[in-house]
Structures are given as C-alpha cells and as structure tokens.
Write a structure and sequence with these properties.
By secondary structure, this protein is of the alpha/beta class. The protein has eight helices and seven strands, in the order E-H-E-H-E-H-E-H-E-H-H-E-H-H-E.
Length: 266
C-alpha cells in the first residue's frame, strides 16, 4: 500500500514549483489532492498532468471567505481533510525605504493571513473526527505543514515584507502545534492525550523555481557561494521533506522548523 493511500490533501499554490512537486509526490503515494492556484486555468492544466485523483480550485485566497470555500469544496468532493500544506506565496522585493504599505501588506496577507484562515477552515474537519477516534482508541494522524523560508529565519536584504511574513509562519506553526497537541475539555483543562494532529514548517533556501528564473546570473553565482552544498535545491527535494512531515512516519514530530536549505543556516 502507498504511504498516503486514501489520504485527502490540500496543497495551496500547487500549480507550480514546490507546490506542484508536492502535489505530484502526494498523488504518486496514493493521496487525493486539491490543486490550487490564483489562475484556475493553470491549476486545471497541472491537475490534468498529475496521475491520480485531483480536484481543482482557482481563486485569490487572500479574499475574505475564499479559504473557507476551498475547504468546503474538498469536503463536498471527498468528505474529509487529512493533510494541509500551506505553500502559496510569492515575493515583491525592495529596500525598506522604497517599499510601499501596499506591498508590505500583500506579503503579510498571502504568507500569514491565508495560512491562518486555511488552518482555521480545516480545524473542525480534523478535530471532530479525531475526538471520536480517540474515544474509540484509534490513532489516526492528520498533518499541517507550512512552507516558510530561510528568509523568515535569517532575514534577507530587500525582503522586509517577505521575511516578516515567512517569520510569522513559524510563530503560527508553533502555536497551532501546541493547540493541536491536546484536547481542550469543557472545563478548560488540558487532557494528557494527543489527538493526532501535528503542525510543522519547512524553511527552504534558494530553489530552482519560477520565482528565481529572473534573477541575473551574477546574483545566482553570489548566492550559490553562500550555500555549503554549492547549488540551489530542486523543488522535489523540498517536496520529499513535506511528504515525510505529512506521513504517519512523523507522528511524534510537531512544532518543529525543518531547514531544507543546503546548510545555509547551520
């Protein structure tokens, strides 16, 4: 049996790059996958190229109510959510003295507000079945994996907005991991039994994706010198770590930050 057989996974921003590599890997391991992109046509094309059971949701996740609509589409189609990967994101770089309020806020919206809304939307669909399973003595893992960035842990010149957003992902991860690790009782006390929901984050370094396709060669050469393994990551290398954190094999890992950056942050 495949590792993610019959699991239902949502991967935001999954028409390209790390998100697409993750969706492809999940599908190859038996998962049903929601493919999402701002451009619905691009998401549809990606889904058509992925072997396996997929569902497409195009739309701007930063708009109020859209994250809830995405999750409801998954529940309507498959009846459950086992895995959420918050991957959607992009950059708008500028030194802080040239950065507008709008471009700072856009990074906070896509990298902080959207993951918060997605986690909130899936929460009842993860917690309610988990309560029943715990009462029955059955252990079923459900996973949230957030995609941050090395810019969120080390900072990066010209990315005050992006770094702030990606740093916030780590705080969200650690807080939700603590909330999910225990079942809140009506009396307000914490049970000592886990409900099988883990929350972790990965922090990629420089990755060979469209986001870096316009970077000048001299800049790429300078960045490569900062990486101990002397190359950029491939999207599938990030996806493999996301896959591990989304699988039952990582059931005892939660609230952790996984650097996948060729040793840049050692």
């Amino acid at each position: 049996m495949s590792i993610l057989q019959d699991k239902v996974a949502i991967v935001t921003g999954s028409a390209r790059g790390i998100g697409r590599a993750t969706a492809e890997l999940f599908s190859s391991q038996g998962a049903k996958v929601l493919v999402n992109d701002l451009d619905g046509d691009v998401a549809q094309q990606t889904a058509a190229e992925i072997d396996g059971d997929t569902l497409v949701f195009g739309g701007d996740l930063t708009k109020p109510g859209v994250c809830d609509q995405l999750v409801e589409a998954v529940i309507s189609e498959w009846g459950k959510v086992d895995i959420l990967v918050n991957n959607a994101g992009y950059t708008i770089d500028a030194p802080i003295h040239k950065m507008s309020d709008e471009n700072f806020q856009r990074m906070i919206d896509i990298h902080n507000v959207v993951p918060f809304r997605m986690c909130r939307a899936v929460a009842p669909h993860m917690r309610e079945p988990a309560k029943k399973e715990r009462e029955e003595g059955v252990e079923v893992f459900r996973k949230i994996v957030n995609v941050s960035s090395i810019s969120g842990t080390m900072g990066n010149a010209g990315q005050a907005n992006y770094s702030s957003g990606k740093s916030g992902v780590i705080g969200l991860t650690k807080t939700l991991a603590k909330e999910a690790a225990f079942m809140l009782q009506k009396a307000g006390k914490l049970s000592d039994n886990s409900i099988g929901i883990t929350v972790n984050t990965v922090t990629p370094g420089f990755v060979e994706t469209e986001m870096l396709s316009t970077v000048p060669e001299r800049v790429v050469a300078r960045l490569t010198e900062q990486i101990p393994v002397r190359r950029f990551a491939r999207a599938e290398e990030i996806a493999r770590v996301v896959h591990f954190l989304a699988s039952d094999a990582s059931g005892y890992i939660t609230g952790q930050v996984w650097g996948v950056n060729g040793g840049m942050d050692m």
